[in-house]
Amino acid sequence: MKKTLISLLLALSAVSSTAVSAGSLSGGRSIGLQSAAVAAQVDAAQVDSAAQQEQAPVPAPAQPAPPAKPENAVTGMLGGALLGLGLGAVFAKMGIGPEMASLLATLLMLTLIALAALLVYRMVRRKDTPANAPFAGAGQGKKTPAAAPPIGAKVPPAAAAPWGVPSTFDADGFLRHAKASFIRMQAAWDKADVDDLRKFTTPQVFAELSQQIVQRGAVGEVTEVVAIDAELLGIENMEKNFLASVKFTGMLTSAPGTEAVPFAEVWNMSKPVAGGTGWVLAGIQQLS
């Protein structure tokens, strides 16, 4: 389900990235610290989507023609018997004595019966013999070893660091503050309020945002967050810091009177393991 959602968000973000980048805090770019776990999840969703598109229905194999029905041997035997009786009558008309005619007819019938029995035997023998009879039993006693899988094929990956949300973590409260910070930082970006941005960002992210504000000059922006939702994807322990990845989705306008467009991006929030300070923005990660 999560992979399907990410695939849909990728499509939406590709359509609306130009409009969103005009007024969003990130400018439609990835900045600052990037999460390897988020990148792996996005790559897996893209691979699954590509695999589903490449799959094609396999045509059903052609049905083999039904084998020809063999001739009925019983019918042949009855025909032979009738033929023998007919020949006996012919012998009698030719002046051959009844005893000799009967003997000849009997011999002929026995010959026909023997031929019919031989025909039946060959038919049964042919049916029981497999199609590859000349090679039957060849190679017995030699077990072919199973082929070794190619290097890297279906090799389980190395155990990765746990990535998830601890059961004791107040995810709901964290996401409420995260959405409030998103709206506040977007407003500070529009007003070029670098002092407010400094409170919620790491030095690296603050330096990038400050540089963009200087490049745009005195021109301000008016961005309205029409709708916003947040999902906590996971929290990583990076030795000295915790890194919480929050996926923001929603609608925003880049200028007054413009149509709201969808957006989707991941904010990576950082906090020292030792405590002392709260969560700050360490990086913004795009989903495409």
From TrEMBL:
Residues 50-71 are annotated as: Disordered. InterPro entries: NTF2-like_dom_sf, Tim44-like_dom. The keyword Iron-sulfur does not apply. Residues 1-22 form the signal peptide. Keywords: Membrane, Signal, Transmembrane, Transmembrane helix. Residues 58-69 have a biased composition (Pro residues). The keyword Transmembrane applies. The chain crosses the membrane at residues 73-91, 103-124. Pfam families: Tim44. Gene3D superfamilies: 3.10.450.240. Residues 155-286 form the Tim44-like domain. This is Tim44 domain-containing protein. It comes from Massilia glaciei.
